[in-house]
Write a structure and sequence with these properties.
3-stranded antiparallel beta sheet; alpha+beta; 4 helices; two-stranded antiparallel ribbon; homodimer
Chain lengths: ~150, ~150
């Protein structure tokens, strides 16, 4: 059964700042000064990396019991490469991430083999990971001039 | 030239909540109660949609002048479909987004044709849009048992 998720992003009057919202939650987005912003919040590509790490962490928590895996703490460090010449139009290189790497940390956990099998499951199951690693159809449903 | 972006996601002790950070900025992530969370923050897939909308809004702001396009306000509404049976392991359907649709709103803007050309440019240029619409290589750099 399809679940629909929704969000809205509104440009703020000055600079590059954006207020985004989904249900009753909000995330502010900006760019660093080097890219013309005021550096008040994360940039969108950093928000994307947080979505990925957050999703991996939630998959770890949500499925640990069903996989009989115990650990005290989990965190993941994520790093991604963008060639900004693509965004700037100085090159035909893609504007998005070329590669995203992550290192997962489990504290006081099970034997290594068991954790590695669980990580393999996590990678297959993570909705944000799948949405980044594989193509998603983006559809422009309309441009409205108000 | 490659710019590296970094983030970290840390599972909080109770429930599914995650604290994510990039540079000195933080975003909290949770799941609604229907998926086992406490509904304190957006879910990761909603954060992904906010990253997309935020990126589109920043591209609109950042490139308007260079494209000689003027508008007073911009916002974008985004909607995406996920079949949660994939995440739940009840079906082989992909766990991520099957489709993401967006409607862009410009206020007191230029002639429609000019805005549509600008939107086409925005879609090609948006780093988060490219990262979702096209494949990104995800690399597991390590699993560390502490």
């Amino acid at each position: 059964m399809i679940t629909k998720y929704r969000a809205k992003a509104t440009k703020l009057p000055e600079g590059l700042r954006v207020e985004t919202e989904s249900r009753n939650f909000k995330i502010s987005i900006d760019e660093p000064k080097s890219l013309g912003g005021e550096n008040k919040s994360m940039s969108p590509v950093e928000v994307l990396l947080c979505a990925l790490g957050g999703c991996q962490a939630i998959v770890a928590s949500a499925f640990a019991e069903a996989h009989d895996v115990k650990f005290d703490d989990f965190h993941v460090e994520i790093e991604g490469d963008i060639d900004l010449d693509g965004f700037m139009g100085k090159s035909l290189v893609r504007p998005g991430f070329q590669e995203i790497r992550y290192t997962m940390h489990f504290k006081r956990s099970e034997p290594r083999e068991k954790i590695l099998r669980f990580v393999e499951f996590m990678e297959k199951t993570c909705p944000v990971g799948d949405s980044i690693e594989n193509e998603v159809k983006l559809v422009n449903s309309g441009v409205i001039l108000e």
